[in-house]
Amino acid sequence: MAKSETGKVVYGYAARPPVPEVPAPDLPYRPATNVHPAKIALIGAGGIAVQHLTAYAAAGYDVAAICDVRLSAAEELRDRFYPGAAVFDDYRRALDLPAIDVADITTHPDVRHGIIRDALLADKHVLSQKPFTTDLARGEELCRLAEERNRKLAVNHNARWAPNFRYASLLVRGGRVGSVQGVHMNIAWDHSWIKGTPFENIHHCILYDFGIHYFYVGKVFKGLVYLFTGGLFGIGWLIDIARIAVGSFRDSWGYPLVV
Fold this sequence. Notes:
Distance between the termini: 30 Å
Strand order of the largest sheet: 5-4-3-6-7-8
Structural class: alpha/beta
CATH class of the domain at 39-156: Alpha Beta
CATH superfamily of the domain at 39-156: NAD(P)-binding Rossmann-like Domain
């Protein structure tokens, strides 16, 4: 119980002293400037492509080609963002351009595998929308190919680099908030836009397409396994409790979890 300003006793949280505010430390949470003048080919002129092009334009990145099976869609984005970009209805023509360094692939997953493979074989670095594959064996194949060709294969987990997530992760990694025992995240993204789009037909769309953002922080794989197996049928929980007790349990960044 606590007393209100009028002196009346009210139920609720006990009165607490004001919490002092401290200046937020200056951390490098914003994207790096364009230190390498790479030329980008955007493959797929759908809805998410607008977000990519908006960010590229703001950062001063050079989009040299835009591709889509609907040539008019590629032309519309070219006129809106990069009037000097070449447009193609066959992405292979963009990959044939020696000047292209990076293929930004924003198509749907069902056609993405072949495009990623062609881009790597053309010696382009690749930025793929997530999930970059829906088949583990194919995903491993693409990773091996990228390693063999000495090319980067990056997946656009954009929430990882969102200012709020990035800043918070740097605070934790730098030990500025002490030993973190738990993290509470409340994300209120509006997913109603998928109505009437192909995403509406994806089974468990929120988990499949958006869920990676929710599970990205921490021990992602273990979290999913524990979620669907009851902590490996209870055995995993017992092992973790024992490891915490002896101080050997660590999070994804190597920090110990202590009690």
